[in-house]
Each structure stands twice: as C-alpha cells, then as structure tokens.
Amino acid sequence: MPRILSRVSVRQFRGSPAAQAKMHYQVFEDHLTVTSELAHVDVRWQAFLKAKETTGYVCLYLGPMVAYIIPMAYLAQNQASQFRELVRRCVQAAPARGRPLFRTGS
User: Fold this and answer.
1) Which residues pair with 22 in a beta bridge?
2) 47 φ, ψ to 5°?
3) Which residues pair with 54 in a beta bridge?
4) What are the domain boundaries of the chain?
5) Separation between Cα atoms, residue 26 and residue 11, nearest integer Å
6) In the chain, how long is the greatest CA-to-CA distance?
7) CB-hemisphere CA count at 13 Å for 49?
8) C-beta of residue 60 within 8 angstroms of C-beta of residue 87
9) Which residues, other chains included, contact 44 with Cβ-Cβ below 8 Å and sequence gap of 6+?
10) Residue 64 — left, alpha, or beta (φ > 0 → left; ψ -120 to 50 → alpha)?
11) What is the pLDDT of residues 29-88, one digit of tens each?
12) In CATH terms, is domain 2-93 a member of 2.60.40?
C-alpha cells in the first residue's frame, strides 16, 4: 500500500500547477529550500514525517498526503547518493514519526 500511495503522490504532483513551473531545490544541512515563480519555501528537516524513494523520485512527506517530490534524474550519481544520505540522517533525526526512509540492505 505505501508504494501505491507514493505513486499516487507523484501522479498528483505532476498534475498540479506548481509542478508545471520550473522548481529549484537547494539542500542544506538544516533545511530544504524550494523556489519557483509561484513560491519560495524553506522547510526544516524536522518538519518531515517520513521519506520514501520511488523509481526516480524521493518523496518527503509533511503529512499523510502532502509531500515534496524530488526528481532524482537531475542529480549526478554522487549528488544523489549524498542527498539520500542527508535525507536518511536528517529525516530520521526528526521526532519519531513515520517509517524509515529506505529498506535496510538496499
């Protein structure tokens, strides 16, 4: 069921007006910044309940049905690895809510 929810989240995101505008993500040790022509948002890692990776995307959940969808295709392989590690460290360091980011052994 969680995998289906992630796919639905990605599909809904692709259809939203915010997804049609070019978005820029900046990743910092203590927060994530998302900028587009419609919005500028700084989100501290502690705000995320959980993170999940689907094929090509990392979903950072603020609530059960609210997530930032990060397309991994725009990252070089080493950047993607660094981003995954930062998300693992920071989202799991947030107050204990949600499930682990990735399955162990992957």
Assistant:
1) none
2) -75, -20
3) 57
4) 2-93
5) 23
6) 39
7) 10
8) yes
9) 30, 31
10) alpha
11) 999 999 988 889 999 999 999 999 888 999 999 988 788 889 999 999 999 999 999 999
12) no
